[in-house]
Design a protein that fits this description.
The structure is a homodimer.
Chain A: E1 2-7, H1 12-22, E2 28-31, H2 33-39, H3 41-46, E3 55-62, H4 66-73, E4 80-84, H5 89-101, E5 105-109, H6 115-120, E6 128-132, H7 143-153, E7 160-163, H8 168-177, E8 182-185, H9 187-190, H10 195-206
Parallel strand pairs in A: 1-2, 1-8, 2-3, 3-4, 4-5, 5-6, 6-7, 7-8
Helix pairs in contact in A: 4-5, 7-8, 8-10
Chain lengths: 207, 207
Amino acid sequence: MKLQAAIDRVSLEEAKKIAHDLDGIVDIIEFGTSIIKDYGLETLKTQDIKLEKSKLLLDLKTNDEGKYEFEKGFETAADILTVMGGSSKDTIEQTYAVTQAVNKDILIDLIETTDDKIDQVSDCKNAIFGLHHSKDSGKNFDAVASVAQFAQKHPDIKKIAVAGGINIDQAKKIAQQGIATTIIVGGQIAGASDPVKAAKEFMEVIQ
Amino acid sequence: MKLQAAIDRVSLEEAKKIAHDLDGIVDIIEFGTSIIKDYGLETLKTQDIKLEKSKLLLDLKTNDEGKYEFEKGFETAADILTVMGGSSKDTIEQTYAVTQAVNKDILIDLIETTDDKIDQVSDCKNAIFGLHHSKDSGKNFDAVASVAQFAQKHPDIKKIAVAGGINIDQAKKIAQQGIATTIIVGGQIAGASDPVKAAKEFMEVIQ
């Protein structure tokens, strides 16, 4: 299982520092939507954000204009971009096509996405499907149960990421469960007083 | 009825030029999502984007972290910000609360939003509900029929904007229909060889 550490709501300098500190410690480093909307892709293109060992995910959260946003996004050092599962099927298909063409990765963010829409786009075989509990909806998220339920409903989907206030106990349980392929951890790593130490603790429990 | 002119997929310099040219000609000038994701709110805060007469809308398309994004967004010269109807009810309520607190405006973008979700947030009485056909889904959008259908399903919603490839004929018909309170026009104005002339033609048919 892979560990993705998300960095959000900090200055670009701080985000870059955390990212470089975590490079090689976690599998994927995410620059969250807040970093993109605060600083913009044009700025990110000019910054030293390329990672040596970890993959870089930009949480673009595309809702429309899929081709434009993904082409722009992949002009940065990003290896993985995200599209909203709640966007139109056409948008998801456009972003998937751009991603396949450049041989990179896409995560479909399933916040509030209906099962019907998931079924409509489940033929995007190389996409990562991201189970994602809205941050704004508080802490009532049972990640383990959500992953089990998702896998039962959508048995053909193999790449599953899960996000939403995941702590070290939940990470351990998700790893033991053996369904999800990536866990995404936000504040528990990037917001820790020692992000590298926190990341190593998460890596340990998911092995 | 108000006219909102959306500016997208151009450089920030070009966007600013079009915005200042259209200031006072149209009611609302929109900096589209592409401008925000390309340049970022931190940059937009430092730029001369304040308008003298027209209102400024930033098409933030918030999906999560509603409070953070709207507080950041309103640090710019924006009068109106947008949230996705497909985000969680909590996100929409957070963004609505921030907007009310600063006495500004919010547009809920209804791309792919279910009727059930619209009903859940229809008590956001001061929100503008934006009927929005995904750009990526092509041209099969009957704006007039969509507005009529929406008003029938949601009779309590009074502020209705409509967007999606609207040309001058459709604008005229929507004005005659008398339901929508704002029409949003993109490329037909901002992409015209003479945006001011195009905007004036739209203003004329919607009076």
